[in-house]
């Protein structure tokens, strides 16, 4: 096994007791350090069974599984599970235990001192965006679904395991929360660089989260194991193509993050400026609205000529609300926001909500045609995929 490999499945099979046919048959797969490998496939194809054999929540009937070079079947199951974080739907929290107790479970089992556990719990709550003072002592039922999920992730990270298994972790949340959790998790993963096996039903989620995606068929047979780009551009067979579904071109928007395209610029004006200053600015540029921002450059509203009546004293509260999207979100998220908000553009913000730029429909169209061209070139074998090619700047318009 090379240094780069973190998990290796070698001819792994599972036949459940009382069943004739195996649920998983002869699966071999290599997962590298720091990658997110997503297992997708139809219901009942064996995704969860395959994943749970890695931490031996399910004992394999045959084959070998190596984690960081060690054969997991030779290790004590409980010890093994302390070294592999595990996240399931709705966090899988113990309902009668506080958030802090839930997160501190594995460190406690590992014999950490109380002070160290408390410090770690607070550190993890910060990491997943929950204020420790506010959430530490709550019970899981006093949290929203998304918050429970964040605590589930914090718990899995408690003992800083190199490997995480995630079984439909965001499955039980509404689409907006799921999007946010996905983005937050990707941001965390940039820092943490864990090796992650991720099971989902949702192909769009697979594209967004996966470094590589394994499309599984019956008995976990691997139909294709490839990067999202390659899967979308060149499905291995008709079944994979059907699974990817219609709109592969649109789905490619999931592959490109907003921070990889050159955004346009809006005409920014501090909200404390005067309506006359706005009129002067609009007169001198080709934008039809300015974007008002607060003292921290956080976007507030789009203000155009028609919002400025003769008696308008200041800019506060006038104009159209902005639709914002994080710079780490995908172009697909940006398009989604545009369509749901009925707005021709979205304002891109950084982690602190500060203005970064504007993405509009022309910018998306340009990115789509670039990706299409790159896929064509790749098919011709001319160049490697280059999904990071920046789009040209666009003018910000509401
Ligand atoms: N404890 C069990 N005993 C017997 N058969 C089982 C058991 N658990 C799962 N199976 C069977 O093994 C097969 C694979 O199940 P598994 O849960 O791994 O599939 P999956 O791809 O994760 O499904 P889903 O997407 O619906 O969650 C299914 O046919 C299922 O009925």
UniProtKB/TrEMBL annotation:
Task: Name one process (GO BP) from the record.
Answer: glycine betaine transport
Q: Which domain of life is it from?
A: Bacteria
GO cellular component terms?
membrane
Q: Name one Pfam family in it.
A: CBS
Pinpoint the CBS domain residues: 318-376
Extract the PROSITE patterns matched here.
Answer: ABC_TRANSPORTER_1, ABC_TRANSPORTER_2, CBS
MF term (GO), any: ATP binding
Looking at the record, the residues that make up the ABC transporter domain are 7-244
Assigned keywords, A-Z: ATP-binding, CBS domain, Nucleotide-binding, Repeat, Transport
Q: What is its EC number?
A: 7.6.2.9
Give the protein family.
Answer: Belongs to the ABC transporter superfamily.
**What PANTHER family does the entry give?**
OSMOPROTECTANT IMPORT ATP-BINDING PROTEIN OSMV
Q: What's the protein here called?
A: ABC-type quaternary amine transporter
- Origin organism is Planosporangium mesophilum
List the taxonomic lineage. Bacteria, Bacillati, Actinomycetota, Actinomycetes, Micromonosporales
């Amino acid at each position: 096994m090379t240094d780069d490999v973190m998990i290796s499945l070698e001819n792994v099979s599972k036949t459940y007791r009382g069943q004739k046919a195996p649920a998983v048959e002869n699966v071999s797969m290599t997962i590298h350090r720091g990658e997110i490998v997503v297992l997708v496939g139809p219901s009942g194809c064996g995704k969860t069974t395959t994943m749970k054999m890695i931490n031996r929540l399910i004992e394999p009937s045959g084959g070998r599984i190596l984690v960081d070079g060690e054969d997991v079947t030779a290790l004590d199951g409980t010890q093994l599970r302390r070294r592999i974080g595990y996240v399931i739907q709705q966090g899988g929290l113990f309902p009668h235990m506080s958030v802090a107790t839930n997160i501190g479970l594995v460190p406690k089992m590992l014999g950490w001192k109380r002070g160290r556990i408390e410090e770690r719990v607070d550190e993890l709550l910060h990491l997943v965006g929950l204020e420790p003072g506010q959430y530490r002592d709550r019970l899981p039922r006093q949290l929203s679904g998304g918050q429970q999920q964040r605590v589930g992730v914090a718990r899995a990270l408690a003992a800083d395991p190199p490997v995480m298994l995630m079984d439909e972790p965001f499955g039980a949340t509404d689409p907006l929360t799921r999007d946010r959790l996905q983005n937050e998790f990707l941001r965390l993963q940039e820092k943490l660089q864990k090796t992650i096996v991720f099971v989902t039903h949702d192909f769009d989620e697979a594209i967004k989260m996966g470094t590589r995606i394994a499309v599984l068929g019956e008995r976990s047979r691997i139909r294709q194991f490839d990067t999202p780009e390659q899967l979308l551009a060149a499905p291995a067979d008709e079944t994979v193509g059907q699974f990817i579904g219609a709109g592969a071109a649109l789905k490619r928007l999931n592959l490109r993050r907003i921070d990889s395209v050159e955004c346009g610029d809006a005409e920014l004006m501090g909200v404390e400026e005067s309506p006359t200053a706005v009129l002067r600015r609009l007169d001198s540029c080709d934008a039809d609205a300015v974007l008002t921002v607060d003292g921290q450059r956080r976007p507030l509203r789009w203000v155009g000529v028609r919002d400025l009546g003769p008696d308008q004293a200041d800019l506060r509260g006038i104009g159209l609300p902005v639709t914002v999207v994080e710079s780490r979100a995908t172009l697909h998220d940006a398009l989604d926001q545009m369509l749901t908000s009925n707005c021709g553009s979205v304002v891109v913000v950084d982690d602190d909500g500060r203005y970064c730029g504007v993405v509009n429909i022309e910018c998306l169209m340009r990115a789509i045609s670039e990706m299409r061209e790159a896929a064509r070139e790749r098919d011709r074998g001319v160049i490697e995929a280059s999904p990071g090619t920046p789009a040209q700047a666009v003018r910000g318009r509401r």
